[in-house]
Amino acid sequence: MHPENSSRVPEFILLGFSDTRELALLFFTLFFLAYAMVLLGNFLIIVAVWTDPKLSSPMYFLLCNLSFIDICYTSVTTPRVLVAQLSGIKAIAFEGCMAQLFFLHFVGSSEMFLLTVMAFDRYTAICRPLHYTAIMARGVCWTLVAACWAGGFIHSTVQTLLVLQLPFCGPNTIHSYFCDVPPVIRLACANTALTEWLMASNSGLISLGCFLVLVASYTLILAKVRARVSQGNWKALSTCASHMMAVTLLFIPCIFTYLRPAGTLPTSKYVCVIYTIFSPMMNPLIYTLRNKLGWSLPTQTASVRAAVTSPNPAGIEIQ
User: Fold this and answer.
1) CA distances (Å), origin 119, targets 9, 59, 65, 100, 126
2) I need a labelling partner for 68 at 20 to 30 A (CA). Which of 190, 271, 280, 284 fits?
3) With contact defined as beta carbons under 8 Å apart, do 169 and 8 qualify?
């Protein structure tokens, strides 16, 4: 059934976005600017959180980890895209492709788990303020973040092993700008129906499950603050809506991409741009611009402290 290792393709060809030099330079410029914004925005959040003692609340600890994950997530694919667009070199070694696939799912699934933890943090602050400091203690936060990374590692290991057990003897052209499970397994020289369903149930159900938990948490938060809208909590509702938009930018394309067998529908490379580039670029804006004066982050810390000492959780601004 499986061909000898010597017959395995030594490399894959990533088609990217365009074969013309003019369009390649245009895409290089767009990706470079987006990547620079991702690095700058998320790096500033990390520096602000680690250097300002006022930003020691669990929310900012989790936000700092989200920024680090966004930097890692975009760095898995974007530098390789920039090199390819500028040099025209589209080949990637088989081992390099598998490494990119592994780290893409490792960091991507860790981000999904972390966003779910952040939603739980906001739910606790709004709906159970008197127990907030006990539930979201520092040690608990570190444990939750470690669990997110561990869950991402397990998920990615399973995905990568499922791909590695497939024979690849040609063709070797990937209709995308990075190595991912759906386009890669289409090139396998074997019946991949069972593998496709296993991967869909793994990646797809993780994406869908985390998204449903996030929707449920935001629904409970909105129900909690809705009665207080007339008392000045429009900002809380609008901020919650903006956060839900950020979650949607990541989860909906992932659900579309992974919650189905790889061969049923083609995966658009432009859909992949949404969750590999656009979502990490927007997260710093969405998670910080709702604060007063753009970077007045300590405002939220004071709000959380007020929630812990007050029985009126609807007065908290959701950031």
Assistant:
1) 43, 10, 14, 29, 11
2) 271
3) yes
Continuous H helices in the chain:
21-51, 58-87, 94-127, 132-135, 138-164, 181-185, 193-199, 205-226, 234-258, 269-273, 279-288, 298-309
6-10, 148-152, 298-302: range with highest mean pLDDT: 148-152
Q: How far is the C-alpha of 160 from the C-alpha of 103, rounded, in Å?
A: 10
5-9, 28-32, 38-42, 308-312: which has the minimum mean pLDDT? 308-312
Look up tokens 């959780």; give the residue: 313
If one counts every other C-beta atom within 10 angstroms of the C-beta of residue 91, the result is: 13
Residue 174: phi and psi, rounded to 5, are -100, 125
pLDDT in tens, 167-191: 998 788 888 889 988 888 888 888 8
Predicted TM-score of the model (pTM): 0.82
Rounded Cα distance between 165 and 2, Å, is: 9
Per residue in 101-155, pLDDT (tens digit) is 999 999 999 999 999 998 888 888 888 888 888 899 999 999 999 999 999 999 9
**CA–CA gap between residue 73 and residue 108 (Å, rounded):** 6
Residue pair 137/61 in contact by the 8 Å Cβ criterion: no
Three-state DSSP class for residue 175 = coil
What length is written for the chain?
Answer: 319
Residue ranges and CATH numbers for the domains of the chain are 5-315 (1.20.1070.10)
Strand-strand pairing, 173-174 and 11-14: parallel
CB atoms within 10 A of CB 155: 20
CB-CB contact of 67 with 37 (8 Å): no
